[in-house]
Fold this sequence. Notes:
It contains four helices and nine strands. By secondary structure, it is of the alpha+beta class. The chain has one domain. A nine-stranded antiparallel beta sheet has the order 2-3-4-5-1-6-9-8-7, covered by helices on one side. β7 (162-169) and β8 form a beta hairpin. α1 packs across α2 (96-113). The longest helix is centred in the C-terminal third of the chain and has 22 residues, at 209-230.
Amino acid sequence: MGELLGNKPLVEALCQFNFSSANTQDGLLGENFYEMVKVEFPERAISKVLFKFPIQGIISPIDQVELHQFKRFDELAAVQINSDLLVINLRDYKNWEDFKSLILKMYSNYCGVRNISNLESVSLRYINHIDTPNEEKVEIEDFLTVFPIFPTPIDKDLNGFSQVYSFTYPELMARLTHRTGIVINSEGGVRLLLDLDIISSWVEPFRELSNLTSWLDQAHDHIETAFIASLNPEYYESLRGQRYVTDNK
Length: 249
């Protein structure tokens, strides 16, 4: 995000473009796209997708379709495509300007091999895992400003929690989905989830690349604001005290 932190909790950033069904699969889509990205994403894989998730959030079964995946050798960045989808995944996040540049580059490449006139939605998502002390009881409010509160007599120690909220941003014709919860790491330790996903289905202006760039910048700024507001101020200051680099933005 804007200010990178020395012990940053960000584990993955994603940008996703959804398109209405093209009805027929383009057998050359993956091959043509690979020719444009193979220097940066040389690893290839094809998997079968059994379901798709429409913008309304209802799961609808469809016929199997191919999902083409292209990865860097270190597997810290990837691009996934089919005739309905373009996803840019990044785990070695450096700064917003670099990520935005990658998004626009891959979108331009995708436009070069496919008709994108039926673009349905664009989303930007940041997934954070917050490490906590290895204790039986985690004080969620030490880390997050958004946490569950229960009245007596059910104000017991939590074994887990999951909260999802949705907020509207009229100026972007978008909504922000705010998720918090508990995730377990590979060593069995507890981490807190802070997942911020802003999505717009108002895509007509995105026919112009400059409009898409502006939307991405604004969406990023809203996610950063939500990120800071969601953290306990003392915890956030502790992360800022460990910062080692500042974004260009």
